[in-house]
Specification:
alpha+beta, 141 residues, three-stranded mixed β-sheet
Length: 141
């Protein structure tokens, strides 16, 4: 990522913005090293990762119309920038409109195993769903 891209990102999405992700029950891990629940690495796997800007909606809003038991994880935009990711606001226009479409964004960039691990470790669950399927991580996932 060039310094021009970094500057454009900083203006578009501040580093302290929380990027919200939907997390299915089997994608939650308890990180023993951090002593908290977080998303697993498979949540941040896509080169164009779908997220929602927290400044534009309430956290639980992205779960509207999704099965009970899902969680919401927050990823600081700064953590994405630290892993050479670009954040692009990308509002969705569906018919009928969903209450979270306007807050949609993409985290774009290659996500090697190392980057996925770092991004996953930076997440924190902000809405806890069904944790009965939660896995455990020694911090390496």
């Amino acid at each position: 990522m060039t310094s021009e891209t970094s500057a454009a990102n900083a203006q578009a999405v501040p580093a302290d913005e929380a990027l919200l992700l939907r997390v299915t029950p089997d994608q939650v891990v308890f990180d023993k090293n951090q002593q908290r629940y977080r998303a697993s690495g498979q949540v941040v796997d896509d080169e164009e990762l779908s997220v929602y800007l927290s400044s534009l909606l309430r956290r639980e809003g992205i779960l509207f119309g999704h099965p009970d038991g899902w969680s919401v994880a927050a990823l600081p935009a700064g953590a994405a920038y630290d892993q050479q990711q670009e954040i692009r606001p990308d509002p969705v226009f569906e018919d009928p409109p969903r209450p979270y479409d306007f807050a949609h964004a993409l985290v774009v960039g290659k996500k090697s195993t190392k980057r996925r691990r770092r991004l996953a470790k930076a997440t924190a669950l902000t809405v806890h769903g069904d944790l009965s399927q939660c896995g455990y991580s020694g911090g390496d996932d």
